[in-house]
């Protein structure tokens, strides 16, 4: 059961990747919502992180198996929609130029979807070829209290991301797209009012 509680601070150090490229590129620290006042951080790694981009959004999907593994059936799904062409973006549900996303836990007692409500994403990388990468430093708080900090190295695969968006989780993704459309209308309305005043 997902419960809503917005975190004010995140307070986790960013996990640094080895400069030599050893190990798995995508590695994050996940701290689930505290139960009985006790927090247990988990290190998650994966070899399945993909990105796609259109004129408005960079979309990133990372699928994490059980802690300790880098392959296998995903236990956590991280999906982000980042404004295209930026190197840094705040995370939150309000504002058109914000990164939106969610974290899905697919198994065990606390399975469900948590929405990203606060944090920051830094993006590096260019090109759109088959092996083009996007490197993300993420610091994200979710609405049920979970925190996620670390690095995601995603390879280009438009069909893989689109498959997630249109076949595996279409309703969840559509909800984010609707939020973006609503915020765009707010911006357009405000711009129109300013234009009329001039």
Structure in a nutshell:
The protein is an alpha+beta fold and 198 residues long. It has helices at 158-168, 170-197, and strands at residues 26-31, 42-46, 49-53, 57-64, 76-83, 88-91, 100-105, 112-124, 133-142, 147-156. The chain is built from two helices and ten strands; from the N terminus they run ββββββββββαα.
Beta-strand portion reads 35-45%
| Class per helix and strand makeup | alpha+beta
- The total domain count is 1
Topology pattern, helix = H, strand = E: EEEEEEEEEEHH
Query: What kind of sheet is the major sheet?
Result: 7 strands, mixed, barrel
Adjacency order of strands in the biggest sheet:
3-4-5-7-8-9-10
Q: Terminal Cα separation, in Å?
A: 50 Å
- Gyration radius over CA: 17 Å
Shape: globular
- Total beta strands: 10
Portion in helices: 10-25%
Mean pLDDT: 82
List the total number of helices.
2
Identify low-pLDDT runs.
1-23
């Amino acid at each position: 059961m997902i419960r809503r509680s917005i975190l004010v601070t995140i307070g986790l150090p960013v996990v640094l990747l080895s400069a030599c490229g050893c190990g798995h590129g995508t590695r994050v620290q996940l701290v689930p919502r505290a139960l009985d006042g006790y927090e247990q951080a988990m290190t998650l790694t994966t070899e399945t992180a993909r990105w796609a981009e259109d004129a408005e959004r960079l979309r990133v999907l990372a699928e994490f198996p059980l802690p300790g593994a880098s392959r296998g059936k995903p236990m956590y799904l991280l999906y982000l929609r980042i404004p295209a062409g930026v190197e840094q973006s705040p995370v939150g549900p309000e504002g058109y130029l914000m990164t939106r996303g969610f974290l899905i836990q697919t198994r065990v007692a606390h399975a469900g979807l948590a929405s990203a409500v606060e944090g920051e994403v830094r993006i590096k990388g260019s090109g759109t070829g088959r092996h083009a990468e996007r490197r993300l430093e993420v610091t994200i708080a979710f609405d049920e209290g979970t925190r996620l900090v670390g690095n995601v190295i995603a390879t280009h695969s438009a069909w893989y991301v689109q498959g997630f968006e249109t076949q595996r989780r279409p309703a969840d993704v559509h909800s984010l797209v609707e939020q973006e459309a609503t915020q765009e209308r707010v911006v357009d309305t405000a711009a129109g009012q300013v234009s009329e005043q001039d």
